[in-house]
């Protein structure tokens, strides 16, 4: 990763894990890395159409976890395969292990979902943010 890409990566990590102004104590330097999981998930993010490749584990919930949150059973399965961790059966590992959380964030950053984030950041920041939001 180059300096611009690292700055973009860390900026998105800070944005996704922020407590936001007024909640974090310690001023602006304490705003990022406050949360490591989705605080009020509205669903378990289990897509049964992936039951043959990445089946949902009984009782597991695939809501957003990590420095750049990943969602859905198929993303936990793919990340777990790439990182050699059983994330499909134990998605909670990401919120229990900071190293794994950042490995998953780097995996998400570097793995194409629609288009590679790193190829878009230099063209248009607004387009880049839209791709991240729509990939969740």
Automatic annotation (TrEMBL):
Keyword Disulfide bond applies: yes
Keywords, comma-separated and alphabetical: Disulfide bond
InterPro entries listed in its UniProt record: Glyco_hydro_19_cat, Lysozyme-like_dom_sf
GO annotation, biological process: cell wall macromolecule catabolic process; chitin catabolic process
Keyword Acyltransferase on entry: no
Start and end residues of each Glycoside hydrolase family 19 catalytic domain: 3-116
Signal peptide: none
Molecular function GO terms recorded: chitinase activity
PANTHER family the record matches: CHITINASE-LIKE PROTEIN 1, CHITINASE-RELATED
Protein name (database record): Glycoside hydrolase family 19 catalytic domain-containing protein
Naturally occurring in which organism (per UniProt): Brassica carinata
Organism placement in taxonomy: Eukaryota, Viridiplantae, Streptophyta, Embryophyta, Tracheophyta
